[in-house]
Amino acid sequence: MSRESKQARLERALEICARMDDAYPRAACALTYTSPFELTIAVLLSAQTTDVAVNKVTPRLFSRWPTPLDLANAEVGEVEEVIRTIGFYHTKARNCVGCARVIVDEYGGEVPSTMEELQTLPGVGRKTANVVLTEGFGIVEGIAVDTHVFRITHRLHLASAATPAQTERELLALLPRENWGAVNRQFVLFGREVCTARSPHCTGCPLSDLCPSAGRDVNVQARTQRRS
Length: 228
Ligand code: SF4
Prior knowledge:
This protein is about 60% helix and about 0% strand. It is built from twelve helices and no strands.
């Protein structure tokens, strides 16, 4: 696979996308939200924690501070109390309130809908902005490279870059635009169910004949774990 031509890699990538479409035809964001504002806050909270954990705290959060103005005026300590069951809640509480303040002060109380503007919100980087644009506004400008997308695309040798930002650039250069929107939704599910972080289920994986890492990661990771 190391000498794979650009055309062969594209064809393999398109076949991977087609099989993901077959496997996850209705893949959707698992966060619970009713507006771009709630989505933005939910995605902020979801860093390094599960969507399930986020969905447990957001009903109380959004019921207590339902609008950007309400949250902008909230005490950070009170927000911390509500979200304290999720990781990094000190920083996330500060970012939630800061984010709401910028939405109110700079954008008239409405979540902005461009990549550039979204990244002016505290705690919002390109990955979060991609999710908000795609799921909240139906605008696909890139691919949200989270831990699942990063891990899987590297195992599949669709990307080799060291950072999520560079990985996104590699994927955008490889895949046609019409494929971008589904990658995160599908790989998040695929990464939870099949190509898991510690012990990928390569036997029976629908991509095994297209994957240079098939059967290898299990051994590599087992060796790594034995040493650690
Ligand atoms: S074959 Fe294994 S490493 Fe490759 S995509 Fe499938 S589960 Fe992941």
